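Sample entry copied in:
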Amino acid sequence: MLCCCRYSVLDENDQTPTFSQDIYTATVVENTPRGQTLLRVVAVDHDDGLNGEVTYLLEDDPDGLLHIDSELGVISSAVEVDFEITQLVTAKVVAVDGGVPRRSSSAAVILRVVNVDDEKVTFSQPLYSFRISENQEAGTPIGHVTAHDLDLPPAEQRVRYSLNVNDDSPMFYVVEETGAVLTNASLDFELRWQYRLVVFAVERSQPHFTAVCDVIVTVDDVNDHRPQFIFPSSSDADYVALEVDGGRPVNEVVCTLSAVDDDDGDNGRLTFELLSDHASDLVNFDLDPVTGQLRLVAEQLSVCALSFAAAQVANSSLLQRLFQSRN
């Protein structure tokens, strides 16, 4: 008699999931909507049943930029990727079987982000402040404004600069290619000490991408004006006679000198000085260098020749009107 026996071979989990390739690469255009399919990974496990069922998961994606379908291995975008922040996305995909103990393998995922010209040209700062001394010749550089397109590397920047037309713009011009700001005329502090300009920057490849910045130009005073007496005379003559009554009481104020200087700060601050060819004449008068008050300090005046001078604090050697005083 023959006996027939059947044996069942039980599968052991002795096969490791194997990816179709070690590295998966793809490209993603920046600003691609969330959920966009990017690629699919495939791993095969030759075991049977649960031992051969493969589940996929992602590792080394700390920013959570990617999502993977655990059953199909389809990798999609989890967020909109910004090229200006991330140019390369890398992660590790792991395939795990259902056996006990589980077996797994991994592959690399590399996604290159494709740039889109979506960034507007932007100035490095919204307000620039420049200074220039007055009386400089036309064409004097006073500074630079700089705008960038974040989509482009520095060597490929294509920005065109221009001045907005306003009341102040005729005094300046901007070099279209470089953003250099120069004077268009010699500036006079006494006429105008500050100007406000508006500069435009336009991306050549995207003319609708325009940026605007403000430019403040401050004109610094130069000591270019001589003091001018207002009293006792505003005449342009170098010498003016001032009659002093010798019978005046001692220490009485004879007059108060007054002078102006159109310069600013120390350049326009004045002191008064009493001058004479003869030192003995000076003892008859006392002149307050700040207020300009002239006092008679002698009871009787002898004939003397005195000169008044207004000197600038910033340059006391620069004298203006000279006055002769006689009894």
Observations:
- Confidence is low (pLDDT under 50) at residues 312-327.
- Residues 221 and 253 are 35 Å apart (CA to CA).
- The longest strand covers residues 104-114.
- The chain has three domains: 18-114, 122-220, 228-326.
